[in-house]
Each structure stands twice: as structure tokens, then as C-alpha cells.
């Protein structure tokens, strides 16, 4: 099993990165948060990896922090939550917020995440309520393998992603456009309404 990879970023997008490791290109599926932590194409990066083996495919999932990888394992252990949904959840909420939402049984926050319905949110709270208590906010924020500016997120970002997807844009493209807005001014982006985020995102994708 591949547990980690260290190599040059050959290509990257919000849901995947190709790493050149000794001349071999490894495609690694990632969350948009790990994407935010990636260096420019051509530079070296280290990622923790989870290898998922199925009869028809071997898929690599990469993480910029050990805590994100641990949460991926926890999410993946919940009935009905596969690797793709686990990554989607990690893309839409910070590790600290996720643990808090599950601990407090914040159904509104959880169901605002892409792919998470009421039943899935209930299972997350029921099956992970005690387990996420082991994650302290301090450790979640301090244990970072790669550094990057913090992303401040609210419901508007989630709604803007959903709106762009409904307009026919791929989810990864929508996330990339909105992340670029956040990276320019995280505090300002956190205060923007959905309409303003949509306008800026559409301009960025034009």
C-alpha cells in the first residue's frame, strides 16, 4: 500500500493532482482544501496517501495534513459514505468546523454540504459523535504538512457552488473559481452574498 508520495506537481485541479515521482506520474484524488495547499506546477510537494483497492481500480487519495487523512478514514467508516463523498465533505468544511458540527449535531450545517442529506447527516452524528471529540481544534489547525492562508467559509460559498453546478459548470471548476476569489481576500469573501460570489466566479471563468 502507498502511504505517502513526494514528488513534483505535474498537473493540478481542485479534485486531483498528478505527481511526478521519479519519472512516474501518480494521479491522486484530493479535496479542494488540499488543493489550496499545493505549490505551483513544477515544485515539490509531500502528500499523505490512502490507497483504495477495488477489483476494477486502484485509487489514490491524498491529504495535505494528517488530521484530514484521519477524518477521511472516520467519514469513510460511516455507512453510506464512500471515498468520493468523504472528499466532498472535506472540501466543503474545515476539519475543526466538521468536528464541531458533528459534536453539536448541527444538521443545518451538515446538510448544507454537497451530497449530504438528512439521513447521512444523522448517521455522521450518531456514528462519529464521540470519535470526533478526540480531535482538538488546536491539533487540527497546528498539524499542517503544507502551509497556506486559512480559508474562511460560510453558507454563501456552498450556495454559490451549488448554483454554478446547476448552471452546468463542473463542481471542480466552480470550486476553483470560488477558491481564487477567497485567496485574493479571504475576509472579504467571507462577507460576500451569494449573488456577488456568483458574479465574480462567472467573471473568473469567462
Looking at this protein, list some descriptive labels.
about 210 residues; alpha+beta; Helicase, Ruva Protein, domain 3; 5-stranded mixed β-barrel
Short précis:
Helices cover 50% and strands 18% of the residues. With 206 residues, the protein is an alpha+beta fold. The longest helix has 14 residues, at 171-184.
Q: What does this 3D model show about the protein?
A:
The chain is an alpha+beta fold. It folds into three domains: 4-63, OB fold (Dihydrolipoamide Acetyltransferase, E2P), CATH 2.40.50.140; 66-142, DNA polymerase, domain 1 (Orthogonal Bundle), CATH 1.10.150; 155-205, Helicase, Ruva Protein, domain 3 (Orthogonal Bundle), CATH 1.10.8. 50% of the residues lie in helices and 18% in strands. It is built from eleven helices and five strands. It has helices spanning 32-37, 66-76, 83-92, 95-103, 107-111, 118-128, 137-142, 155-166, 171-184, 186-191, 194-205; strands at 4-13, 16-21, 24-29, 44-53, 58-63. Strands 1-2-3-5-4 form a five-stranded mixed barrel. A hairpin with a 2-residue loop joins strand 1 and strand 2. Helix 2 crosses helix 3 (83-92), helix 8 (155-166) packs antiparallel against helix 9 (171-184) and helix 9 (171-184) crosses helix 11. The longest helix has 14 residues, at 171-184. The radius of gyration is 17 Å and the shape is globular. Residues 136-152 have low confidence and may be disordered.
Amino acid at each position: 500500500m502507498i502511504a505517502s508520495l513526494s514528488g513534483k506537481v505535474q498537473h493540478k485541479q481542485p479534485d486531483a493532482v498528478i505527481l511526478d515521482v521519479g519519472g512516474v506520474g501518480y494521479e491522486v484524488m484530493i479535496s479542494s482544501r488540499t488543493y489550496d495547499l499545493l505549490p505551483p506546477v513544477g515544485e515539490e510537494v509531500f502528500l499523505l496517501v490512502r490507497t483504495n483497492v477495488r477489483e476494477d481500480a486502484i485509487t489514490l487519495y491524498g491529504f495535505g495534513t494528517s488530521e484530514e487523512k484521519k477524518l477521511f478514514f472516520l467519514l469513510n467508516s460511516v455507512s453510506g459514505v464512500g471515498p468520493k463523498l468523504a472528499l466532498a465533505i472535506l472540501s466543503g468544511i474545515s476539519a475543526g468546523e466538521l468536528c464541531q458540527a458533528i459534536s453539536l449535531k448541527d444538521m443545518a450545517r451538515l446538510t448544507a454540504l454537497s451530497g449530504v442529506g438528512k439521513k447521512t447527516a444523522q448517521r455522521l452524528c450518531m456514528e462519529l459523535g464521540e470519535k470526533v471529540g478526540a480531535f482538538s481544534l488546536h491539533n487540527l489547525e497546528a498539524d499542517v504538512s503544507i502551509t497556506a492562508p486559512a480559508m474562511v467559509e460560510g453558507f454563501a460559498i456552498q450556495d454559490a457552488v451549488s448554483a454554478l453546478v446547476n448552471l452546468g459548470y463542473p463542481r471542480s471548476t466552480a470550486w476553483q473559481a470560488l477558491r481564487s476569489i477567497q485567496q485574493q481576500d479571504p475576509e472579504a469573501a467571507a462577507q460576500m452574498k451569494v449573488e456577488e460570489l456568483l458574479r465574480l466566479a462567472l467573471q473568473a471563468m469567462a
